[in-house]
Amino acid sequence: MSTSGGRAPLATVLAANAISVTGNSLTLIGVPWFALETTGSPGKAGLVAFCAAVPVVVSAIVGGPVIDRIGRRRISVASDLVCGLALAAIPLLHRVGALQFWMLCALMAVTGLFHAPGETARYVLVPDLARRAGTPLTRAASLYDAVSRGARMTGAALAGVLVALIGADTVLLLDAGTFALSALLVLTGLKGVPSAEPQRDPPPFSLSGYRAELREGYAFVLRSRLLLGVVLMVMVTNGLNQGWSSVLLPVHAREDLGGSAALGLLVAVFGGSALLGALLYGAVGHRFPRRAVFTVGFLLCGAPPYVVAAFTDTTVPLLATMAAAGLGAGVLNPILTTVAYERVPDELRSRVSGVTTAGVLLTTPLGGLAAGQLIERAGLVTALLALGAVYFLATLSPMVFPSWREMNTAADASADPPTDTATDTAPGATEATGSTGATEAMGATGATGATGAGLSSSGSSLPGPAPAPSGTPPRR
Question: What's this model's pTM, rounded to 2 decimal places?
C-alpha cells in the first residue's frame, strides 16, 4: 500500500475525532447550563454529571473484549448513533413539556454507557493507522491530541455564544448532528481497514473466556508499576476535573463572570493554549525527559485555575491562568499515550485500554456530585480552594514515587511490562526513530477527552464523556 493511500484512514479518524470533540464541547457547556437553567440547583447539576459518568466507567470496565470481537469500526459507528439519538431526545422532550429530571439523568446515562466503547475503538486504531501512513507515532500522538484540542477550543467558543443566542436546548440538537457526521465518516472512511474489522474466526463466546480476556488486561496493568501509578494519579485528577467542568466553572461563570459567553471564552482560551502546547511538544518535546515535562505540565494545569477562580470575580485574571494552564495540559496526553502505546502490545491494546480508561474515570461520577454538594453546603469559594488543594497534592506524585522514572525510558510493547525501577535517561533518549520498534512513541480522547480513552487525562479542561481538566477532556 502506498504511503499516500495509507494516510486516508488516519485522516478519517482525525477528522471524526475533530467533529466529535467539537460537538462534545457543545455538550459539556450545554448540558450543565441546561441543568442549571431548568433546576437552578448546583446539586442537581452535579447529579446529572454523576449519572453521565457512572455508565462510562461500567462500559470501560467490561467493554474491551467486545470491541475486538464486534469490530472497532462498527463499535465506533454504533456508539455515535446511540449517543446522538439520546442527546437529541433531551431538547425534543423539553420542548413538548415532557422532560422530567429523571429522564435527563437517564438520557445522559445512555450517552455515558455508549460513549466509552466508541472512544476506545478509535483510540486503539491509531498505532496501526500511523504505520499504514508512514507517520512516526510520536507525531501521530501529538497530532491526534492537537486536533482534539483545536476542536475543543472551537467548539467551546461556539458553544458559549450559541447558548447565549439560541439556548442550551438547541445547542444539544447541534451536538446530536455532530455525532451523526462522525459516524458517517468512520462508516465510510475505515471500510476495508483490517484492524477496524471484527476478529477473524474468534473463539466461541463464553463467560469464562470473556472473563479470561478481561483478566489479561487487568493483569497487564497491575504488573506495570508505571501504568498503575499513572492510572491512580489520573483517577484522582479526572474526578476533580469533572467537578470543575460540570459544576464549579459553570456556577462561577453564571454567578460571577456574566454568563455562558464568559464560560465559552475561558474554555476556548484554554483549548487554544492546549493546542499550542501539544504542537510544541510534538515539535521539540522528545528532546526533554518526559517525567519532568509531565510534572511541570500538570502543576500548571491543575490547582492554579481553582485558586484564581476562588479569589476573583472578573474574567481577565482567570483568562491568563487558563492560558498558562492550557499550555501545561497540552503536553499531558501525548506523553501518556506514548507511554501506553510503547508498553502495550497490539493484541492486548483494546483490553488494556478498557482497563486504563475505566481506572482513570473511576472517580468522575463522584466529581460532579461532590462539587455540587460542597457548593451548596460550604459555598463556591470553599469548594474551589478545597478541591484545588487536593489537586495540588495529586500532581506531586511523579516527583515522589520512584516508578515514575520509567516514564523516561522507551519500552518494547512485545515484552512483559517492566517491574524494576528504571533510571532517568538523558534528554532525547526517548526520541522516536521510526514507524516501528521499541523506541517508537505511539500516537494518542477523553474525553472524553477526554477526553478520552486509554491513559488520557483532561488536565484542567472539560472532560469528554469519556472522555477530558480546567475549562474545556479528555474529548469525546
Answer: 0.62
